Amino acid sequence: MISFIADHKLRFGVEPICRVLTGHGCKIAPSTYYAARDRMPSKRARSDETVWERIEVLQADRSKGRGVAGYRKMWHLLKREGLQVARCTVSRLMREHGMQGARKGRRFATTHPDHASARPPDLVHRDFSAPAPNRLWIVDWVR
């Protein structure tokens, strides 16, 4: 909300924006905007910034993170560097910035259907109810 007001205050002004937002159910006073704008970053925000800078350096280092470290390995690397931080904090920061470690195994499907190719006929016309046992087999219906 604060960033929205900051983006549009030059065009409309703070007070009119707050009045319209309040009329639409988002109650905010101009004094709230100014207080939030002038407020110093919290201790957590400052700490997160320091930790994130260190995570970026370690992830880019070819001899340490190698660009593949996940949150657990990054947490251990940070401890080795002397930075005491909670594992959940490392996980949260990496998730917020879209960074993840390499995974074992396959992440994507190995085959992709060719929608232009001819398909076998649907012999049961998408009616999957069988009148008796051994009357309808799964091979009778093909997508």
Lay out the secondary structure.
Layout: H1 2-12, H2 14-23, H3 30-38, H4 43-60, H5 71-80, H6 87-96
Helix pairs in contact: 1-2, 4-6, 5-6
Main attributes of the structure:
143 residues, mainly alpha
Largest sheet, strands/sense/barrel: none
Mean pLDDT: 88
**Could you give the distance between the termini?**
49 Å
Number of strands: 0
Please, how many helices? 6
Decide which structural class fits the backbone.
mainly alpha
Give the strand content. under 5%
Principal-axes geometry comes out as: flat
Rounded to the nearest angstrom, the radius of gyration is 28 Å
The run of helices and strands is HHHHHH
Q: What helical percentage do the residues reach?
A: 40-55%
Poorly predicted runs of 5 or more residues: none
